[in-house]
């Protein structure tokens, strides 16, 4: 009888304990306001799928660009991106590329919500390309805009669209100029 009473007590206790636990569903957004983009904070991340089209040589490119930036004032960050990629050319061999580009990014207060912000970014740097052992380096710049959607207090997913230009080009044109879109993430550290 003691065993049955003990078993019944454990069963009732287990059921009560199971009902008392709250299961939390994963969050798709976090209300952060301006907390992550305050002066003195850091931002690190990457554009993991920067896909572009070159108007001059009819080629597609794919790049991965890790980034790091520091907020010098609320909403304004300066930093650098260093990345590499692959360009497939319609009339030739594939081209490997790299980029080193300091940039500035500004988060606009207009159109902001508690879970996301629009931003503009511009950068000037060096871009290089390598094909069959030959390397060419040149001046490069890009300008883009995008939206950061905060999935937690310190992580945001980003979608960007913009224009890029450089003179390093093995694809038959004199320069690279084209439009690109990117998907990435940023981790906000600090205050």
Structure description:
With 191 residues, the chain is mostly beta strands. The protein has a single domain (35-189), classed as Porin (Beta Barrel), CATH 2.40.160. The chain has 1 helix and 8 strands, in the order αββββββββ. The protein has one helix at 2-20, and strands at 42-54, 59-73, 76-89, 95-107, 116-131, 134-150, 155-166, 176-189. It has an 8-stranded antiparallel barrel. It is elongated and about 85 Å long. The N and C termini lie far apart (61 Å). Keywords: Signal. This is Outer membrane protein beta-barrel domain-containing protein. Residues 1-20 form the signal peptide.
Low-confidence stretches: none
What is the strand tally? 8
Overall tally of domains: 1
- For the largest sheet, list the strands in their spatial order: 1-2-3-4-5-6-7-8
Order of helices and strands: HEEEEEEEE
Question: What would you say about this model in short?
Answer:
The chain is mainly beta and 191 residues long.
Topology:
Layout: H1 2-20, E1 42-54, E2 59-73, E3 76-89, E4 95-107, E5 116-131, E6 134-150, E7 155-166, E8 176-189
Antiparallel strand pairs: 1-2, 1-8, 2-3, 3-4, 4-5, 5-6, 6-7, 7-8
């Amino acid at each position: 009888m003691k065993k049955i009473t003990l078993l019944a007590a454990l069963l009732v206790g287990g059921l009560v304990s199971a009902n008392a636990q709250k299961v939390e569903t994963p969050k798709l957004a976090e209300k952060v306001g301006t907390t992550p983009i305050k002066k003195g904070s850091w931002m690190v991340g990457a554009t993991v799928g920067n896909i572009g089209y070159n108007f001059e040589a009819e080629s597609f490119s794919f790049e991965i660009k890790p980034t790091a930036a520091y907020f010098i004032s609320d909403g304004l960050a300066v930093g650098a991106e260093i990345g590499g990629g692959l360009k497939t050319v319609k009339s030739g061999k594939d081209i490997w590329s790299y980029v080193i580009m300091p940039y500035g990014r500004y988060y606009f207060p207009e159109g902001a919500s508690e879970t996301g912000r629009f931003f503009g970014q511009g950068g000037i740097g060096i871009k290089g390309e390598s094909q069959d052992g030959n390397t060419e380096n040149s001046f490069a710049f890009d300008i883009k805009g995008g939206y950061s959607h905060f999935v937690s207090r310190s992580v945001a997913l980003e979608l960007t669209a913009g224009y890029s230009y450089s003179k390093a080009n093995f694809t038959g044109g004199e320069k690279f100029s084209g439009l690109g879109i990117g998907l990435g993430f940023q981790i906000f550290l600090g205050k």
